[in-house]
Each structure stands twice: as C-alpha cells, then as structure tokens.
Amino acid sequence: MNWPDFWQHVATYLELAAAALAGGIVAGIPLGILASHLNFARSPILLAANLGRVIPSLAVLTFMLPLFGVGLAPAVAALGLLAIPPIVINADLGFRAVPATAVDAARGLGMTNAQIFRQVEWPLAFPILFTGVRTAAIEVIASAVLAAFIGAGGLGEYITEGLQANIPRLLFLGAGTIAAIALAAEFGFGFAQRRLEVKT
Amino acid sequence: MTYLFSHWRLIGVLTLQHLGLVFAALGIALAIALPLGVFAARVPRASGLLLGALGALYAIPSLALLAVLVRSFGLGAAPVIVVLATYAQFILVRNIAAALRAVPRAQLDAARGIGMSSRQQFWRVELPLASPVMIGGLRLATVALIAIATLGGYVGAGGLGSEIFFGLQRRYLEQTLAGSIPAALLAIAADAAFRGLERMATRRTTG
Amino acid sequence: MWRRSLSISVSVGFDSVVARYPQADRNAVDGVSFEIPAGSFTVLLGPSGCGKSTLLRTVNRLVTPTSGTVTVGGRDIASIEPTALRRATGYVIQAVGLFAHMTVAQNIAVVPQLLHWDRERIEKRTDELLDLVGLDPQRYRLRFPRELSGGEQQRVGVARAIAAEPQVLLMDEPFGAVDAIARRSLQDEMLRIVRALQTTILFVTHDVEEALHLADRIAVMRDGKLLQYAAPEEMLRAPASPYIAQLFAVNDDLRRYDELRNALSRRA
Predict the structure, then answer these.
(1) Do C62 and A108 touch (CB under 8 A)?
(2) Which of C53, C87, C110 to mutate to test the interface with A (most CBs of A within 10 A)?
(3) What is the mean pLDDT of chain C?
(4) Cβ-count burial of A7 within 10 angstroms (0-12 exposed, 13-18 middle, 19+ buried)?
(5) Is the Cβ of A45 closer than 8 Å to some Cβ of chain B?
(6) Which of chain A's residues have a Cβ under 8 Å away from the Cβ of B161?
(7) Is the pLDDT of residue C260 over 80?
(8) Which residue in A58, A84, A54 sits closest to B189, CA to CA?
(9) For A179-183, what is the mean pLDDT?
(10) Is the CB of A175 less than 8 angstroms away from the CB of B65?
(11) Which helix (H) or strand (E) holds C221?
(12) What range defines the domain where residue A88 resides?
C-alpha cells in the first residue's frame, strides 16, 4: 500500500469537489436571485437549470472533452456545471418563499433596498438555499468519482485500476474511502441544515 | 457526428438495452418501494429512520457501490440492475410516502363512510389520489437511473455507456459522444414524458 | 435631520391625490383632498378596493401618487428621502409582517437600529415597549414570532411601529387577522397605548363598527373618491350621501340584531 499516493488521491478528489462546488455557488446564487426577482428571466433560467439536472453527469463530463481535452480542467468545469442547477432552483425557491408582507413591512419601516436584501430577504431565504447547496455537494462528490474516467485522477482511479487489473484491495480502498467521504458530507450538511431550521 | 450517423443501428440497439436495464430495475425497485412507502406514510416515527438510512445509501456514489457488487455478482447486467434498484429506493419511498400523506383526509373519510373496505380504500381512492406525486417520484427515479445506467457500459452490461467507455479507452471522442449525446436526449425525453403523465394524472385527480 | 424640525404630532394633508397602478384601467385613488389635524385619530373607511389602503400607503411613500401632493407637517413629502420619511412614520399591517428569523426584541429594535441608536438605549426602549404592550420582557424578549399567538404577534407589531416615537402612525386593518373574540380587548388595549402617544393616526378598516368605536374622525371612501370626512356623530347625524346613510343604517340594524340576540340568550 502506497500511503502518500493515497493521500494524494484523496486531496485531488476533495479539491476537485470543493472547486466545483465553489464555482456552482458563485454562479448559482446570483442566477437564482435573478430568477426570483425578475419575472422575464425566470423561465429561461429555470428551464436551463432543469435541463442541467436531467442530463446524466457522465454525459456532461464527456461534453467538456471537446472544449478542454482530458485532465483536471474538463472535470472541474463539468462538476461546476452540475453544481449550478440545484443551487439555482433552491435559491429561486428560497427567495420566492420570503413573505411579501415581511418585505412590505421592512420597506414601510424605512429599510433601503440593500438593507431589505441583507437583513430580511437573505436570512429568510437562506435555509432553503442551503438545501440546494447540500444537494449540489452530494452530487458533485458522487460525480467526482467519474472524473477518473476522463483522466482527472482522484479516488475514482482506485476503482478503475482495481476493476481493470482485478485488485480487490485497491477497489475496496477506493470505494470505501469514497463512501466515507460521501456519508460524512451527507451527515455534515444534514446536521448544519437542522441547526439552520431550528433557528428560523 | 459522422460516427453517430453511420452507427445509428448500433446506437438504437444500445438505447433499447439501456432502457431495458432502467425499466427492469425500476420494476424491481417499485415492488420493494411501494410497501416501504406505505409503511413510511402510516408510521411517521419509523419513516425518519427508514428515509435516513435510504438517504445515506443514496449519498454513496454509485460507481463505488457498483465496483463492490461486481466482485460478488461478476460483470454483466446483474450488478447494474441491483445498483439501479438500490438507488431508486430513496427517491421512490420518499415520494410514495409524501404522496400518500398528502391525500386529503376528507376523501378518505368519505370512502370509509360509503362502506369501502380498507383494501378498497387504498386501491380505489388513496392510490389514484396520490398518483400525481408518485408519478413525479417515478420521473425523478427514471432520470437518475438513466444516468447511473451509463456506468453499465464499464462493467459489460451494455447500454449507451458502452460507447462512452469504448470511446474513452480508444481516445475516440466521436464514439464517446455517440453514447453520451443519446443518453442525454434519452434522459430529457423521459423527463418530458413523465411530466406529461404527471399533468394528466393531476387533471384527473383534481377534476 | 428632518424629524427634529417637527413637533410631537403633525398634520397630514392630501391635495388632489391621484394614484393609479400600472396596467390598471382606473385610478385606485381618484382626486382625494382633505387635511387631517395633528394628533387626531382618523379612520379611512370603505369597502375593499375603494383605495383606502393605497391612500394610506402614499403617506410613507410606499405608493407614489400619479399626481397631487401629500404633506406631513405642512411639508411636501416628495421632497423627503423615502427611507427617512418611513423611519419617522410608524407602520402596522394586517399580516403583521414580523421577521421570522429575528427575536421579538430584534424585531422591535429594527427602526432604532436603522437610526443608529446606541445599544443601551435600544435595550432599554425594547423592554419599555414590551411592558407597554403587555408582554413581560423577561419572557418574550428572546422568543421568535412563530412561538407567539396572533394577538401577541400584533402586540409586537405595534411595539415595532412605535419604537422610535413616530409622529404619524399608519395602521392598515391591524386587527383583521385576530379572531373576533380576542379582537375587541386587543383593540381597546392597543388604542389606549397609541392614543397616549399623541401621534397622528391613520387607521384603515372596512368594518363600520370598528370605525365608530375608534375614530375621532372618519373618512369614507368609495371607488377611489372621498365621500365625506367628519366626526362620527356628525356623519351619523348628517350623512353627505345616501350611500353613507345606508352604510351606517345597515350597521344600526346589525347592532339592534346583536342586542336582541344578547337579550334572548340572557333570558335562556
């Protein structure tokens, strides 16, 4: 067993997932806010987001190959794209769930638009928005395994190598570590979400 | 694109194979999920635990589970169908339970009031009224399974994934896309078809 | 600042105010002119859709008149920064609109915070207000709105509106969502409190009974127009139109019916 190699794979895997999730958040939240606040922008944005949720992630990964070649770049781009839809959809849901009466009261009390957004809309929308981030994280972690197929490395490589060369130890190491990371993310995000729900 | 057009017969066969994997798994999954969903709807206290466990299973990346199952089932369709049926559980059970819980009490009372047995209540009133939400669950499950089934190509189960992986191995992009583009279209078509069914069912239950 | 230049209570004037919503086929407020004296309790009364809420919302510039002017303390409010105007104007709505993610104390402190009061002053004021609206500060300060009954929520809504001692208080059917049994006592108590502030109050309702119960002066509106602005007694004695006479007569019948029913139930 080659431990430095193992940690390298874990690091690549986590970096890939984290970079993609960060990209998805940075792109997805503004798009969701746009969709929830501008009627004319809403249907095209949500249509695209729904399409993005339907297309298989392996397909999205392969669609990046003509643009970026093989390696880490297409994987980050594809996983980032996959992270966007759930965040957009939930951000839109969250902001549209903010009661109109709360916004009316805030305006009537003399808040500026920026204050209404920061002090009223954002905190009220956040728990639902966070659910989208959680979904995106789980999806990105699952799809990051597939990144090994397009030469991006990471823990998925143990599975491909283990299957191809028939080395069960390698296969179980990969599958077990991936499962552990996925479960840790699922429970971590689940815990954070329950904390949020208690507060609001 | 020339590859895709010159191999359309092969792609057609692989598409059917892909659908075969998905629907075989969906059938098995439904047979398990329906009783589980009914149970989760009737026993709220147990449903949290059940859905938590299924959710945890769902969070495990499918390739990891598939790789482990290939060890015990060997290559081919069997491990893929088991993986697909497993992943469908969380989506199906959650939706079936939610659908049943959303059935208006008044209509159930009415059914009992006119003398239906509890079996009749379930099959004639509860299930039809819950059908729109359940079809929504079937839609989500089908779309997810079409995506996961692409991994079947990697373990010798055929389907559109085989073109994707052959292409990747041979570094032949056209062949890869000849698998992934039809897979994407298949998912989009399935999504649209189930949305249509959902609308029909909604119209029937809210008449 | 603008509010310092004013006395404790101020008059509110409407001069040919017209308000029309985009895409509407008629004016929501259609040429309304009248002057509300400083410190009075004026009820805007009329059926739903008569423009009373829209007129109310011109006073804190939540609605901008299509034409005409609204004055507060004699000053055209079009020249006042909307957020500054609103911070100096209390606003209570039927839906209450408490912020679900803030505690009771944080909700009440919204306007003082916007006005950059120091923390000590805010805390003192919050407790004072909770006491005033009949909620024990110790028990209620850290609660969230969802833990309160409808009546308690509206108490907090009133406290939030008067936190920074506004010179004008706008109340839009504030007790409409409270159940009928609790309404009267809540109404009486809240009124005692806001009257004690000696601010000018504009109160919107469609309930004739409520209007008669509360008002120094009633402004009856219909189809965006002001039909009459007068003290309740005068309106009963000399209604300006058959519509107004009928409005209060129906109410008379109801009151007689209520009395009869009460008498019967007492006997039974």
Answers:
(1) yes
(2) C110
(3) 88
(4) exposed
(5) no
(6) 58
(7) no
(8) A54
(9) 90
(10) yes
(11) strand C217-222
(12) 3-199
Residue A26, Cβ neighbours under 10 Å: how many? 13
A156-164 helix and B62-73 helix, angle to the nearest 10 degrees: 20
Residue A125 is part of a domain; what is its CATH number?
1.10.3720.10
* Distance separating alpha carbons of residues C56 and C45, to the nearest angstrom: 11
What domain count does chain B have? 1
The contacts of residue A30 (CB under 8 Å, 6+ apart) are none
Q: Token pair for residue C224?
A: 């965006």
Neighbours of B79 (CB within 10 A): 24
Chain centre to alpha carbon of residue B136 = 10
Nearest to A58 among B55, B60, B180 (CB): B180
C-alpha dihedral sign at A130, A131, A132, A136: positive
CB of C43 within 8 A of CB of C203? Answer: yes
In whole angstroms, give the CA distance from residue C66 to residue A158: 70
Q: What is the per-residue pLDDT for A200?
A: 54
pTM of the entire structure? Answer: 0.83
Residue B60 structural domain: 2-205
Does residue C179 register a pLDDT over 90?
A: no
What is the tally of structural domains in chain A?
1
Closest CA to B127 of B203, B190, B37: B37
- Binary contact (C87, A110; C-beta < 8 A): yes
Q: Determine whether the interchain pair B67/A175 forms a contact, defined as Cβ–Cβ distance below 8 Å.
A: yes
Q: Which residues of C touch A101 (CB under 8 A)?
A: 93, 95-97
Residue C230 contacts residue C218 (beta carbons within 8 Å)? yes
A66/B165 CB distance under 8 A: no
pLDDT in tens, A121-147: 999 999 999 999 999 999 999 899 999
Torsion angle, alpha carbons of B59, B61, B67, B70, to 10: 50
Query: Residue B122: CB partners within 8 Å, gap ≥ 6?
Result: B38
SS3 C43: strand
What digits encode the pLDDT tens for the residues A49-65?
999 999 999 999 999 99
The pLDDT value recorded for residue C1 is 39
CATH number belonging to domain C9-243? 3.40.50.300
Choose among A51, A56, A156: nearest Cβ to B183: A56
Average pLDDT over residues B47-74: 89
What SS3 state is found at A71?
coil
* Ramachandran angles phi, psi of C33, nearest 5°: -135, 120
Task: Look at A59 and B143 and tell me if their CB atoms are within 8 Å.
Answer: no
The ipTM value here is 0.89
C-chain CB neighbours of A108 within 8 Å are 60, 62, 86, 89, 91, 93, 170
Q: Where are the domains of chain C?
A: 9-243
CB atoms within 10 A of CB B160: 30
Q: Give the ranges where A97-166 is alpha helix by DSSP (H).
A: 100-109, 113-115, 122-146, 156-164
Neighbours of A82 (CB within 10 A): 25
Q: Which of B63, B71, B146 sits opposite A56 (nearest CB)?
A: B146
Alpha-carbon C170 to chain mean position: 4
DSSP state of C164: T
DSSP-assigned beta bridge partners for residue C203? C43, C171
Cβ contact B118:B59 at 8 Å: no
Identify whether the C-beta of residue B151 lies closer than 8 Å to the C-beta of residue B86.
no
